[in-house]
Protein backbone atom coordinates (compact mmCIF):
# COMPACT_ATOMS: atom_id res chain seq x y z
CA UNK A 1 0.00 0.00 0.00
CA UNK A 2 2.72 2.51 0.97
CA UNK A 3 4.44 1.92 -2.34
CA UNK A 4 1.22 2.68 -4.21
CA UNK A 5 0.55 5.83 -2.14
CA UNK A 6 4.06 7.11 -2.82
CA UNK A 7 3.95 6.27 -6.51
CA UNK A 8 0.53 7.90 -6.96
CA UNK A 9 1.80 11.12 -5.40
CA UNK A 10 5.11 11.20 -7.24
CA UNK A 11 3.77 10.38 -10.68
CA UNK A 12 0.71 12.65 -10.54
CA UNK A 13 2.53 15.57 -8.88
CA UNK A 14 5.39 15.45 -11.38
CA UNK A 15 2.91 15.28 -14.26
CA UNK A 16 1.20 18.45 -12.96
CA UNK A 17 4.51 20.26 -12.44
CA UNK A 18 5.57 19.32 -15.95
CA UNK A 19 2.24 20.42 -17.44
CA UNK A 20 2.28 23.77 -15.64
CA UNK A 21 5.91 24.63 -16.39
CA UNK A 22 4.68 26.28 -19.61
CA UNK A 23 1.53 28.41 -19.26
CA UNK A 24 -0.29 31.37 -20.72
CA UNK A 25 -0.45 33.20 -17.39
CA UNK A 26 1.49 32.71 -14.13
CA UNK A 27 -0.07 34.53 -11.18
CA UNK A 28 1.99 35.01 -8.03
CA UNK A 29 -0.12 35.18 -4.87
CA UNK A 30 -3.47 33.53 -4.04
CA UNK A 31 -4.97 36.53 -2.23
CA UNK A 32 -8.18 38.24 -3.37
CA UNK A 33 -6.57 39.89 -6.42
CA UNK A 34 -4.71 36.77 -7.63
CA UNK A 35 -7.67 34.40 -7.19
CA UNK A 36 -10.09 36.80 -8.91
CA UNK A 37 -7.70 37.25 -11.85
CA UNK A 38 -7.21 33.46 -12.07
CA UNK A 39 -10.92 32.79 -12.41
CA UNK A 40 -11.62 35.42 -15.09
CA UNK A 41 -8.57 34.36 -17.14
CA UNK A 42 -9.16 30.61 -16.82
CA UNK A 43 -12.81 30.90 -17.83
CA UNK A 44 -11.65 32.50 -21.09
CA UNK A 45 -9.82 29.25 -21.83
CA UNK A 46 -6.29 30.38 -20.92
CA UNK A 47 -3.87 28.04 -19.15
CA UNK A 48 -3.38 29.65 -15.74
CA UNK A 49 -1.21 28.68 -12.77
CA UNK A 50 -1.27 30.43 -9.38
CA UNK A 51 1.75 30.09 -7.10
CA UNK A 52 1.13 30.71 -3.41
CA UNK A 53 3.88 30.81 -0.80
CA UNK A 54 1.69 29.55 2.04
CA UNK A 55 -0.02 26.17 2.28
CA UNK A 56 -3.37 27.97 2.25
CA UNK A 57 -4.98 30.70 0.20
CA UNK A 58 -6.82 33.97 0.76
CA UNK A 59 -3.83 36.22 1.58
CA UNK A 60 -5.02 39.12 3.76
CA UNK A 61 -8.71 38.11 3.76
CA UNK A 62 -8.55 35.64 6.67
CA UNK A 63 -7.70 38.08 9.49
CA UNK A 64 -10.69 40.31 8.57
CA UNK A 65 -10.33 43.78 10.07
CA UNK A 66 -7.76 43.55 12.88
CA UNK A 67 -8.93 39.95 13.54
CA UNK A 68 -12.66 40.82 13.62
CA UNK A 69 -14.14 38.29 11.21
CA UNK A 70 -15.70 40.64 8.64
CA UNK A 71 -14.35 42.54 5.68
CA UNK A 72 -16.04 45.36 3.75
CA UNK A 73 -16.85 45.55 0.05
CA UNK A 74 -18.39 48.55 -1.73
CA UNK A 75 -21.32 48.63 -4.15
CA UNK A 76 -19.17 48.68 -7.33
CA UNK A 77 -17.66 45.30 -6.51
CA UNK A 78 -20.96 43.55 -5.74
CA UNK A 79 -21.24 42.11 -9.30
CA UNK A 80 -17.96 40.23 -8.64
CA UNK A 81 -19.33 38.89 -5.33
CA UNK A 82 -22.35 37.68 -7.31
CA UNK A 83 -20.16 35.98 -9.93
CA UNK A 84 -18.53 33.99 -7.12
CA UNK A 85 -21.87 33.47 -5.28
CA UNK A 86 -20.49 35.20 -2.15
CA UNK A 87 -23.19 36.45 0.26
CA UNK A 88 -23.06 40.03 1.60
CA UNK A 89 -24.94 42.15 4.12
CA UNK A 90 -25.65 45.88 3.74
CA UNK A 91 -23.90 48.32 6.09
CA UNK A 92 -23.82 52.14 5.71
CA UNK A 93 -23.50 54.22 2.55
CA UNK A 94 -23.25 51.56 -0.16
CA UNK A 95 -20.89 49.38 1.89
CA UNK A 96 -21.45 45.69 2.54
CA UNK A 97 -19.86 43.19 4.92
CA UNK A 98 -18.65 39.75 3.85
CA UNK A 99 -17.58 36.73 5.89
CA UNK A 100 -13.81 36.17 5.31
CA UNK A 101 -13.96 32.35 5.38
CA UNK A 102 -16.75 32.35 2.79
CA UNK A 103 -14.87 34.80 0.57
CA UNK A 104 -11.65 32.74 0.69
CA UNK A 105 -13.46 29.46 -0.01
CA UNK A 106 -15.55 30.81 -2.88
CA UNK A 107 -12.79 32.82 -4.60
CA UNK A 108 -10.57 29.73 -4.56
CA UNK A 109 -13.38 27.42 -5.70
CA UNK A 110 -14.24 29.90 -8.46
CA UNK A 111 -10.64 29.94 -9.70
CA UNK A 112 -10.23 26.15 -9.54
CA UNK A 113 -13.62 25.40 -11.10
CA UNK A 114 -12.83 27.80 -13.97
CA UNK A 115 -9.74 25.64 -14.67
CA UNK A 116 -6.90 27.53 -12.93
CA UNK A 117 -4.25 25.42 -11.21
CA UNK A 118 -3.22 26.60 -7.72
CA UNK A 119 0.08 25.28 -6.40
CA UNK A 120 0.66 25.88 -2.69
CA UNK A 121 3.94 26.15 -0.78
CA UNK A 122 5.78 27.82 -3.66
CA UNK A 123 7.91 30.92 -3.22
CA UNK A 124 8.56 32.89 -6.42
CA UNK A 125 11.92 34.61 -6.18
CA UNK A 126 12.87 35.90 -9.61
CA UNK A 127 11.77 36.43 -13.21
CA UNK A 128 13.12 35.21 -16.55
CA UNK A 129 13.69 37.85 -19.21
CA UNK A 130 14.65 37.89 -22.89
CA UNK A 131 15.46 40.39 -25.61
CA UNK A 132 16.52 43.97 -26.08
CA UNK A 133 14.34 45.80 -25.14
CA UNK A 134 13.63 43.11 -22.55
CA UNK A 135 10.42 41.22 -21.92
CA UNK A 136 9.51 39.08 -18.89
CA UNK A 137 8.98 35.52 -20.14
CA UNK A 138 8.52 33.57 -16.92
CA UNK A 139 9.56 33.12 -13.32
CA UNK A 140 11.75 31.14 -10.94
CA UNK A 141 10.20 29.25 -8.05
CA UNK A 142 11.28 27.18 -5.08
CA UNK A 143 9.37 25.31 -2.35
CA UNK A 144 8.73 27.72 0.55
CA UNK A 145 10.27 25.50 3.29
CA UNK A 146 13.51 25.40 1.29
CA UNK A 147 13.48 29.18 0.91
CA UNK A 148 12.80 29.51 4.67
CA UNK A 149 15.68 27.19 5.52
CA UNK A 150 18.10 29.78 4.12
CA UNK A 151 20.02 27.10 2.21
CA UNK A 152 21.00 27.91 -1.32
CA UNK A 153 19.05 25.61 -3.61
CA UNK A 154 18.66 26.55 -7.25
CA UNK A 155 15.02 27.14 -8.18
CA UNK A 156 13.05 25.77 -11.17
CA UNK A 157 11.42 27.69 -14.02
CA UNK A 158 7.97 28.41 -15.35
CA UNK A 159 7.64 29.87 -18.81
CA UNK A 160 4.67 32.24 -19.13
CA UNK A 161 3.34 34.64 -21.76
CA UNK A 162 2.25 36.90 -18.89
CA UNK A 163 3.35 37.07 -15.24
CA UNK A 164 1.02 38.80 -12.76
CA UNK A 165 2.39 40.10 -9.46
CA UNK A 166 -0.46 39.74 -6.94
CA UNK A 167 1.91 39.32 -3.99
CA UNK A 168 0.42 41.99 -1.72
CA UNK A 169 2.04 44.93 0.06
CA UNK A 170 5.64 44.22 -1.00
CA UNK A 171 5.05 43.78 -4.76
CA UNK A 172 7.77 41.13 -4.62
CA UNK A 173 7.92 40.13 -8.28
CA UNK A 174 7.85 43.65 -9.70
CA UNK A 175 10.44 44.69 -7.09
CA UNK A 176 12.88 41.94 -8.03
CA UNK A 177 12.40 42.68 -11.74
CA UNK A 178 12.96 46.41 -11.13
CA UNK A 179 16.14 45.71 -9.17
CA UNK A 180 17.67 42.99 -11.33
CA UNK A 181 16.59 44.05 -14.83
CA UNK A 182 16.97 47.85 -14.83
CA UNK A 183 16.47 47.85 -18.61
CA UNK A 184 12.77 47.15 -17.93
CA UNK A 185 12.59 50.74 -16.65
CA UNK A 186 10.42 49.93 -13.61
CA UNK A 187 10.49 52.10 -10.50
CA UNK A 188 8.85 50.83 -7.32
CA UNK A 189 7.85 53.97 -5.42
CA UNK A 190 6.48 52.41 -2.18
CA UNK A 191 3.01 52.46 -0.62
CA UNK A 192 1.60 55.59 1.12
CA UNK A 193 -0.44 55.81 4.35
CA UNK A 194 -4.20 55.19 4.32
CA UNK A 195 -6.74 57.17 2.27
CA UNK A 196 -9.29 54.49 1.56
CA UNK A 197 -11.77 56.02 -0.90
CA UNK A 198 -9.03 57.49 -3.10
CA UNK A 199 -6.92 54.35 -2.93
CA UNK A 200 -9.79 52.04 -3.86
CA UNK A 201 -10.24 53.94 -7.14
CA UNK A 202 -6.56 54.52 -7.94
CA UNK A 203 -5.59 50.91 -7.34
CA UNK A 204 -7.99 49.79 -10.06
CA UNK A 205 -6.97 52.61 -12.43
CA UNK A 206 -3.26 51.75 -12.12
CA UNK A 207 -3.76 47.97 -12.38
CA UNK A 208 -2.22 46.50 -15.51
CA UNK A 209 1.02 46.16 -17.42
CA UNK A 210 4.24 47.34 -15.71
CA UNK A 211 6.63 46.14 -18.40
CA UNK A 212 6.36 43.79 -21.39
CA UNK A 213 5.12 40.43 -20.02
CA UNK A 214 4.80 41.72 -16.44
CA UNK A 215 1.55 42.91 -14.81
CA UNK A 216 0.54 44.03 -11.31
CA UNK A 217 -2.75 43.66 -9.41
CA UNK A 218 -4.11 44.16 -5.90
CA UNK A 219 -2.39 46.09 -3.14
CA UNK A 220 0.96 45.53 -4.92
CA UNK A 221 -0.23 48.29 -7.30
CA UNK A 222 0.03 50.77 -4.40
CA UNK A 223 3.68 49.85 -3.74
CA UNK A 224 4.61 50.14 -7.41
CA UNK A 225 2.93 53.51 -8.03
CA UNK A 226 3.18 55.16 -4.57
CA UNK A 227 -0.57 55.05 -3.90
CA UNK A 228 -2.19 55.19 -0.43
CA UNK A 229 -3.27 51.95 1.25
CA UNK A 230 -6.90 51.29 2.18
CA UNK A 231 -7.29 48.81 5.08
CA UNK A 232 -9.91 46.03 5.29
CA UNK A 233 -12.06 47.12 2.34
CA UNK A 234 -11.66 44.57 -0.46
CA UNK A 235 -13.73 45.79 -3.42
CA UNK A 236 -10.65 47.37 -5.02
CA UNK A 237 -8.76 44.07 -4.75
CA UNK A 238 -11.54 42.16 -6.50
CA UNK A 239 -11.95 44.83 -9.20
CA UNK A 240 -8.17 44.98 -9.67
CA UNK A 241 -8.08 41.19 -10.15
CA UNK A 242 -10.86 41.40 -12.72
CA UNK A 243 -9.20 44.33 -14.51
CA UNK A 244 -5.79 42.67 -14.78
CA UNK A 245 -7.51 39.62 -16.27
CA UNK A 246 -9.09 41.84 -18.94
CA UNK A 247 -5.81 43.64 -19.70
CA UNK A 248 -3.78 40.40 -19.93
CA UNK A 249 -6.44 38.70 -22.07
CA UNK A 250 -6.50 41.65 -24.49
CA UNK A 251 -2.69 41.70 -24.74
CA UNK A 252 -2.45 37.94 -25.30
CA UNK A 253 -5.15 38.01 -27.98
CA UNK A 254 -3.57 41.00 -29.82
O1 LIG B 1 -1.65 40.09 0.60
P1 LIG B 1 -2.68 39.59 -0.31
O2 LIG B 1 -4.05 39.35 0.22
O3 LIG B 1 -2.71 40.58 -1.59
P2 LIG B 1 -3.92 41.18 -2.45
O4 LIG B 1 -4.63 40.11 -3.18
O5 LIG B 1 -4.93 41.74 -1.33
C1 LIG B 1 -4.52 42.66 -0.35
C2 LIG B 1 -5.44 42.54 0.85
O6 LIG B 1 -5.39 41.25 1.40
C3 LIG B 1 -5.12 43.55 1.97
C4 LIG B 1 -5.57 44.91 1.68
C5 LIG B 1 -6.99 45.05 1.21
O7 LIG B 1 -7.57 45.99 0.97
O8 LIG B 1 -4.87 45.84 1.86
O9 LIG B 1 -3.77 43.52 2.29
O10 LIG B 1 -3.36 42.31 -3.18
O11 LIG B 1 -2.20 38.21 -0.98
C6 LIG B 1 -0.92 38.08 -1.50
C7 LIG B 1 -0.54 36.61 -1.48
O12 LIG B 1 0.69 36.46 -2.14
C8 LIG B 1 1.50 35.53 -1.44
C9 LIG B 1 1.15 35.77 0.03
O13 LIG B 1 1.45 34.62 0.82
C10 LIG B 1 -0.34 36.07 -0.06
O14 LIG B 1 -1.13 34.91 0.11
N1 LIG B 1 2.92 35.83 -1.78
C11 LIG B 1 3.62 36.96 -1.45
N2 LIG B 1 4.86 36.91 -1.96
C12 LIG B 1 4.95 35.72 -2.63
C13 LIG B 1 3.71 35.04 -2.51
C14 LIG B 1 6.00 35.09 -3.37
N3 LIG B 1 7.19 35.66 -3.54
N4 LIG B 1 5.76 33.87 -3.90
C15 LIG B 1 4.56 33.26 -3.74
N5 LIG B 1 3.52 33.82 -3.06
SSE topology string: HEHEEHEEHEEEHEHHEEHH
Report the principal-axis shape. Answer: globular
Uncertain stretches of 5 or more adjacent residues: none
CATH-defined topology: FAD/NAD(P)-binding domain
What percentage of residues falls in helices of 4 or more residues? 25-40%
Given helix and strand content, the structural type is alpha/beta
How is this fold's topology laid out?
Layout: H1 2-19, E1 22-28, H2 32-42, E2 48-52, E3 71-74, H3 78-83, E4 89-90, E5 95-98, H4 100-114, E6 117-120, E7 122-130, E8 135-143, H5 144-149, E9 156-165, H6 172-180, H7 196-206, E10 208-211, E11 214-216, H8 220-225, H9 235-253
Parallel strand pairs: 1-2, 1-9, 2-6, 9-11
Antiparallel strand pairs: 3-5, 4-5, 7-8, 8-9, 10-11
Helix pairs in contact: 2-4, 2-9, 7-9
Amino acid sequence: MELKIGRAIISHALKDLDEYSDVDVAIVGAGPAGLTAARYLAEKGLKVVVYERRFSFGGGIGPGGNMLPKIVVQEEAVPILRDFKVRYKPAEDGLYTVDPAELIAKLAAGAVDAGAKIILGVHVDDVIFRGDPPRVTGLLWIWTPIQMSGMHVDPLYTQAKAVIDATGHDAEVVSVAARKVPELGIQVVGEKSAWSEVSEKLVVEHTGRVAPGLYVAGIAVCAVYGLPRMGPIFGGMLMSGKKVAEVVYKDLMA
